[in-house]
Write the structure tokens for this entry.
Amino acid sequence: MTLQPEDFWSFAEWLFRPQAFFESAFLQGVVLVVLAILLGLLVGYVVSAVRYGPSEGFYAVARAVRDFVRFDLPGTSTRRTWALARLAFKEAIRRRVLVVVGMFVIGLLFAGWYLDPRSSDPARLYISFVLTATNYLILLLALFISTFSLPADIKSRTIYTIVTKPVRATEIVLGRMLGFVGVGTLMLVPMGIASYFFVTRGLRHDHEVVDIKDRGDGRFEGKTSYDQFHEHTLSIDQPADAKGEAVGITDMVRGHRHLVRQIEGKYYIGEPTGALRARVPSYGSLIFTDRAGEIKTAGIDVGNEKIRGGHGSAGVARLVGVAQGARRLEHGYMEGGTLGSAIFTFDNVTEERYRDEDGITMEMSLRAYRSIKGDIVSGLNGSITLRNPDNKQIESTPITFVVQEYEIAEEKLPREIEGTDGKETRKLSLFDDLVTDDGRLDVIIKCLDSEQYLGTSVSNVYLRPAETSFAWNLAKSYGSIWLQMVMVIAFGVMFSTFLSGPVAMVATFVCVLLGFAAEQIYDIRYYMDRGESMGGGPVESMVRLLRQDAMTTQLDVDSVANKVIKTVDSIAIYALDAIATSLPNLPKMVSTAEYAASGFDIFGSLLARHSVATLGYVIIAFVISYFFLKTREIAA
Amino acid sequence: MATEPIAVAEVSVGDSAPSPSPSSQVVIETRNLSKVYRDFWGRKKVAALKSLDIEVRKGEIFGLLGPNGSGKSTTIKLILGLLFPTSGRVLVFDKDATETSKNERIGYLPEESYLYKFLTTDETLDFYGRLFDLSGAERKRRVDYLVNLVGLQNARHRQLREYSKGMTRRVGLAQALINDPDLILLDEPTTGLDPIGSREMKDLILNLRDQGKTVLLCSHQLADVQDVCDRVAILHQGELKELGRVSDLLKVQDVTEVHARGLTDAAKDEIAEVIRRHGGTVESIDNPTATMEDLFLNIVRESERRPGARRVGTAGDAGDKNSNSGAAN
């Protein structure tokens, strides 16, 4: 899992972006609300001007706004809203939507057959499977229940008996939303619990010790049986006397290992450990040095690293063209056998936070880029040096390691380490000598093989002060799914206040889809702004398809046609860009599942950001729904 | 109930109707009310209502009468704010019809009972009670009272999808009365009801009027309108054709009707003679016929008193019973 700079933002940073307020979520939210209001007033005025004439139309709009602010919003009653929510809830339940939960559970029972048992990372496979399945199932369900209910009520005229009671439009909208969220929650909880058991049970397995040898020095080494398409080698350290108990451990295979006990000559292999994790990483800041040892902000770009990163959330700034282009970057590389290095500075490194006696746990997943074939038997070599950020003379001797690509390697930074304080070589204390008083520590990573490169990003190397439970992390993933569901329900209810059921469903679906296509739209816009040929907008790419032209050649049509095509395309793309920017970033929310699958604790700030964004969109959808419902002739 | 013995009395003694006389307080007022239905493109489809001016006063039963498509339902929907007028205004309790707060004092029974089929009677009434922000205790009281009033005690825990049309209608009526409204709007109140239900509905309407409530109903069942309404407006093709007191509208000015019991043929001749002497014309001297409704109701009531097969008698027999039950009331 590669994180982008924006993933590290705290909640406040995301909301206000102290250095770049133009890119802040707050500004984006404000602009969105203002635009929604202006657009609403304009559309409202045009419609009522057509209906009642220009001046009377103005009063109609003014009355609607006044009613909303003065009567309907303050007059919204909890009892009525609650009654309507319960009704929506009961309706869904009595239409037997809970059957879906049953279907989900049955699906899980058979899913085991289809999940690749030979996968090298079964935990990721299982977790991604349940989260993805739940996510799309719940969103689909939210789509259906939220868009069909209100139009059905209007069509069957049951709504007549509601709106002829002192029920406000606010209550109808809010009641529906709450009711459906209740239904969704009721379904999500059992699905989450079933998923938890599916994952934990699915990964649980047993081995037997089939072959064990006494190496003579008091160590036993052996092999386990071949179960679940894998086997382990094991070693037991302590010599086992006839009565005592010896404890050993197997090697790490497919993301897990087992504890091995030997009691009275018999071997017992414990449950797999280490497969389901929720690491709480502590990320540092990253700078690079080039081959001459000069400080650089970025590492070497060995390929298309910038383009892969995407555009990120630059908010309004990107839309109006102030912040241009792809902002993100994946890995920066350092050259091996030179002074090139990656320097991570970690904050808040204190003894209270890292209590482990063996030292600080650091994890790395580095990338390797080979310019020559090199030694094909062993991997690339790297080194870790610890350094005091304030007094750069104080540094440890390098700890060497072999790079394990595509895996997370765990290193211990010991509490006592050989090193130099600038004058003499001696044992350095990690917390006293290398860590500054305010808890900062430099970790320098180098590639030792010349003509080879190691790559890293901020998120590839981190200290791990703690772990939380997998169950809690899974719950947080479900929290994220819940937020997406709320978002879809809000949009579904909004569209259903003025569209018929199927149309409202398609409209909501298109909104979700546009959210998922946002990055691609931003990309087209990016190339358009830069004047680069990269396929172009809808018309241009259609022309290219028909003419079988390559994507990156100049469009070979005469200048008038070119102008027309470019103009139409830019209108379409700018409009799409504006729409996609104003829609919720669902893919970002879906991607929280990746945290759980990769075994990382989902940041609280990330969930907080999603929650606030969801709340914002729900409020906008609520206000829009109110006006549509209020100004609608129910019996027409 | 006082209305049991048929319509004869109402016509002959129209001026001393049993209703409390409506006050001058106006509950519903339409001013130059027009409604044009348009299609999606704003093109005019049909003018459903043209410049309607009516006033419904407190404490009266007002009937909207007219053939299908005459604008009755449109008028009711405009009064309820379900539709917006194309021009003109509707005032209900001096408030604009589109204001939600007017609904506090209104009860509405739609043409068909558009209720949630997945709820039981109790749940339905409790739900509508909540919409009036009634407290738990108050809701329970009202629900119990109304379930008894409409006679659904034995079916209160069944989902409405299992109900017959008449039963659904009763629930519909109960939900319209959940807030003890001052103004009740009834759209075709007797459709789907059997003669007994229909009779009970009419009795209930009169009873509501006696409690000082205002009732506006629309119907094309002329007999119903005649039975209960104090005043009627007759609509045709969206236009008001006639408006006034039922008694005035129906009274045939130059015909006199006398009802008497126990006269011999000789006496009848003598009366005819007296009429002729005073320059009048005797059009008919006859025994009155009962309505089919009365006949039916009497048979059913009789059967409830004495279950079992009924001896089929003559028409005169039924007429006798009818007059007896009339006298008993």
